[in-house]
Amino acid sequence: MSTPRTVLVTGGNRGIGYAIAERMIADGHRVAVTSRSGAGPAGSLTVRAEMTDSASIDAAFTEVEAQLGPVEVVVANAGITKDTLLLRMTEEEFTSVVDTNLTGTFRVVKRAAKGLLKGRFGRVILLSSVVGLYGSPGQINYSSSKAALVGFARSLTRELGSRGITANVIAPGFIETDMTAELSDAQQKQYLATIPAARYGQVAEIAGVASFLAGDEAGYISGAVIPVDGGLGMGH
Ligand code: NDP
């Protein structure tokens, strides 16, 4: 049993974020989720936050700190896709995905950092994707935003590693959620054919890794990229 921590999961009202929040509650942590709509799992504190807006992120942290204490584990999970081929991709489709997935993570981790430093403990867990390093046609915006999170976690590790703070990246492959349900049948079939495990992943398989990274035994893991992709991205 790990030390109970205060955990904040962004985008915890559905999909992978919801499953991570559920697992963290089962692990005995105090859990808050950010949401724009709907609530996190039973036993979590739901606070409103928009990833493109620093003020709303600041307000969300302030509310969590008041109700649960300083945030010790940050799971930057909220993310979007706006898939289309490069020649059709508008600048807005590129920048809005980067703004949510990458700059949103910056806003969240920056807001968390002072508290982590003060407590001389922190676990920063960033949700990237196999396509960040593997590449994916039609996802130049998304894969760029997700690849950047690797540099983010590694730079953070070098900046804050001596203060008891770790920063790691989870790189999920094809996980069954609303996000992947949006892919066309052709895209889904194409992915399935390339996954060595010959199946899609489940949200609980991501939540288990997040749980481990937040736990006491993961204190010497930092700057790592942990694939949870059935072997899809091997070697990338
Ligand atoms: P979902 O689409 O099911 O959920 C996305 C979550 O992010 C929702 O809670 C959503 O809130 C929130 N969110 C999106 N944009 C914003 C924003 N601007 N401000 C605040 N919240 C926002 O995604 P998944 O659960 O599938 O994915 C979670 C993470 O895992 C993402 O970062 C994704 O890129 C990554 N991932 C997912 C994979 C998969 O196969 N599913 C594969 C690889 C990576 P709301 O409900 O209000 O829209």
UniProtKB/TrEMBL annotation:
Gene3D superfamilies given in the database record: NAD(P)-binding Rossmann-like Domain
Superkingdom of the organism of origin: Bacteria
Domain Ketoreductase intervals: 5-178
One Pfam family, short name: adh_short_C2
Keywords (A to Z) from UniProt: Oxidoreductase
Xref: InterPro entries: KR_dom (IPR057326), NAD(P)-bd_dom_sf (IPR036291), SDR (IPR050259), SDR_fam (IPR002347)
GO molecular function, one term: oxidoreductase activity
Recorded family membership: Belongs to the short-chain dehydrogenases/reductases (SDR) family.
Protein name per its UniProtKB record: 3-oxoacyl-[acyl-carrier-protein] reductase
Species whose genome carries this gene: Leucobacter luti
